[in-house]
Design a protein that fits this description.
mainly alpha, Na+/H+ antiporter like fold, 3 domains, two-stranded antiparallel ribbon, globular
Length: about 650
């Protein structure tokens, strides 16, 4: 009963902190950390100690999985270089520098144990990134920080395990450390990919969104548990499974499943994040009590924590500064190379289009001659037109993706201003606390080291978390903003073309066969950003021209004949309307009518099927554009959400 009361009070505290944070402008994690610490020091509250395996095996896998599902995979791919530097090189360098410093200032602490402590203090925490996200900094900064937080635990835990082994057994080779790290990553990649793919195929056959959500809750553990048993990183396996789910889910899972799963996962994420920081505060008193009774004392622990925390920031700055310069030089070199081959690339794109039509042979790849030789060898083994056309489309898509990458880097460069935010936002958190508690009981000064780890984590969250808004105001980095008019118009055009292809496939707007019907081109008649009505209190639906399609003049329609009013009553939405000699179908209006009991089923059923075809074609077009990185992740997500909610309405039971 006591445990139940504590759990209920903890959940209520998490909800209260989330509500309070919006009013006072402080992140919920800091409120819970401060509240837990204050409660832990009350005389009638016993000392609390959380099993580290609960955090490492029960809390972190679903948290990292949830973050990986929501991250833009195209942006993650683009930022893989800085993420790798921060998640591997920075963690190893921080562990070494902090380890040497601790070995010098802590009596009786060998270098191996000190490096183990350095590995504990090195990784940042993906949970703490929410503090930076609330400030509205650019998506590039958030992607780099999220990617680092998702992957740096593998490096830190492998270094920790190797250092502990060296301390207890007397020695370990660098080759053994590198081999252990490679094994942990390779196993995690394989297991995570397999679990992600298999789980999506299983979930695609589930008809109930609630059941699908329950199955999704098991995916991070299905990836982490076998990976750990195979000496891999269970947390990285959960991340990989999340990346696969986030990338392929929109193509394989029904919209209702994804919307329900996303909503429920947000609830789980909020609860688990809050519990971590709440328990961190509650544990503080018990650890302070043990250290105060030891020879080293709390004062020395505070001094060591200040030194270690300062070193984490200094080493991070020394790595981030040259990293940004190298990234800038790399982008400039790519841009020059691309400009030199711009005309050849344009001709190459046209040639690929001709190949798909069967009018030309495979051209030279202007930017990668080795790739061209590889493609030619494959084509000799399979010279059919289908194979040639498929590879032409693939290489052409790669060219568009590379051009989009350059536009992405040029539009939002990582300069010293953004670098300052990346350095200061590298806060420590749950992984540091959980990893510290995995130290064996034979470790020298274990309570002292636990207190140092807790002080560094709490101090970085408090100091850096509270001062990060001021740093953002002073440094003025690039901030996240809405898509510009040009991008919105491009997304509209993409959706209009996808819908027009459906209308022009030989059927009229009501689903009947039409011979020679061809869709006309359309001009946008509404802005994507226009405020939209609420749909049953659950989603915002907008009705731009991008979600509509026109039929060629003369296309028959059972709802509009020879100048009839296309809207039966003033209270009912215009499913079909005339624009000159064209007839426009609005899937958003059909979706609302489908839930309106005043409409007859037999009138709506044909247009409902055509509207669903249009929505699914538009989704495929958006996902293809997303794979090539043609538009920002926010624009694509916004459009996909609208399509999802419209399809959910159209696939619901008619009233």
């Amino acid at each position: 009963m006591d445990l139940l009361i504590i759990a209920v009070l903890g959940i209520l505290a998490i909800a209260a902190a989330s509500q309070l944070s919006d009013r006072i402008g402080v992140a919920p994690a800091l409120i819970l950390l401060a509240g837990g610490t204050a409660v832990g020091f009350l005389p009638f509250i016993p000392a609390i100690e959380l099993d580290p395996q609960v955090v490492l095996e029960g809390v972190l896998p679903p948290l990292l999985f949830s973050t990986a599902v929501s991250i833009s995979t195209i942006n993650f791919r683009r930022e893989l270089a800085p993420v790798a530097v921060l998640a591997i090189l920075l963690v190893a360098l921080s562990a070494a520098v902090i380890g040497v410093a601790l070995a010098l200032v802590v009596p009786g602490l060998s270098l191996a144990w000190a490096i183990a402590m350095g590995a504990i203090l090195s990784p940042t925490d993906a949970v703490a990134i929410s503090i930076a996200r609330r400030l509205g900094v650019s998506q590039r900064i958030i992607t780099v920080l999220e990617g680092e937080g998702l992957l740096n635990d593998a490096t830190a835990l492998v270094l920790l395990s190797s250092a502990v082994s060296a301390a207890t057994s007397g020695g370990i080779s660098i080759g053994g450390v590198l081999g252990g790290f490679a094994l942990a990553v390779v196993v995690a990649l394989g297991v995570g990919w397999l679990v992600g793919e298999v789980s999506l195929r299983v979930r695609s056959h589930i008809t109930d969104p609630t059941v699908d959500t329950v199955v999704s809750f098991t995916v991070p553990f299905l990836a982490a548990i076998p990976a750990e048993h195979m000496h891999g990183s269970g947390l990285v396996a959960a991340v990989v499974a999340g990346l696969i789910t986030g990338h392929r889910g929109p193509r394989m899972l029904p919209p209702a499943h994804r919307v329900a799963s996303r909503t429920n996962w947000h609830t789980v994420e909020l609860t688990l994040e809050g519990l971590i920081f709440l328990f961190m505060g509650l544990e503080f008193f018990g650890i302070v009590e043990k250290v105060d009774a030891s020879d080293l004392g709390v004062r020395r622990a505070v001094g060591v924590a200040v030194l270690a925390g300062a070193l984490t920031v200094v080493v991070r700055a020394l790595v981030v500064a040259p990293m940004l310069k190298l990234l800038s030089h790399r982008t400039a070199r790519w841009a020059v190379h691309w400009e030199e081959n711009e005309e050849a690339i344009h001709q190459f794109q046209n040639r690929c289009a001709a190949i798909v039509r069967g009018e030309a042979e495979m051209p030279q790849v202007p930017w990668d001659r080795r790739r061209f030789v590889q493609v030619q060898r494959k084509l000799r083994r399979d010279p059919s037109h289908e194979s040639i056309a498929r590879r032409a489309r693939r290489i052409s898509s790669r060219a568009r993706r590379r051009g989009a990458d350059l536009d992405y880097f040029a539009a939002d460069p990582l300069r010293s201003r953004e670098g300052a935010v990346i350095v200061w936002a590298g806060m420590r958190g749950a992984i540091t606390l959980a990893a510290a508690q995995t130290l064996p009981t034979t470790a020298p000064h274990r309570p002292f080291l636990l207190l140092v780890a807790m002080l560094v984590a709490a101090g970085s969250l408090t100091l850096q978390g509270l001062t990060l808004p001021a740093l953002v105001r002073l440094s003025k980095p690039a901030m996240a903003g809405s898509a510009d008019e040009e991008e919105r118009a491009a997304v509209i055009s993409l959706l209009v073309n996808a819908a027009r292809d459906v209308v022009g496939d030989g059927h009229d707007l009501t689903g009947r066969s039409v011979h020679g019907a061809v869709a006309t081109s359309v001009e946008p008649v509404a802005e994507v950003s226009r405020p939209a009505p609420q749909a049953e209190g659950t989603a915002v639906l907008e009705e731009p021209a991008a979600f509509e399609a026109k039929a060629e003049p003369g296309t028959p329609s059972t709802c509009a004949q020879d100048g009839e009013n296309l809207s039966p009553t003033l209270d009912q939405p215009a499913l079909l309307r005339r624009e000159g000699t064209d007839i426009v179908l609005s899937p958003a209006a059909v979706a609302r009518a489908w839930t309106d009991p005043t409409w007859r089923y037999d009138e709506l059923a044909p247009m409902r099927e055509r509207a669903l075809d249009m929505i699914r074609a538009q989704r495929e077009a958006l996902l293809d554009a997303g794979d090539e990185g043609l538009y920002s992740a926010d624009s694509l997500e916004h459009a996909l959400d609208r399509l999802d909610f419209q399809e959910i309405m159209l696939t619901s039971e008619p009233h």
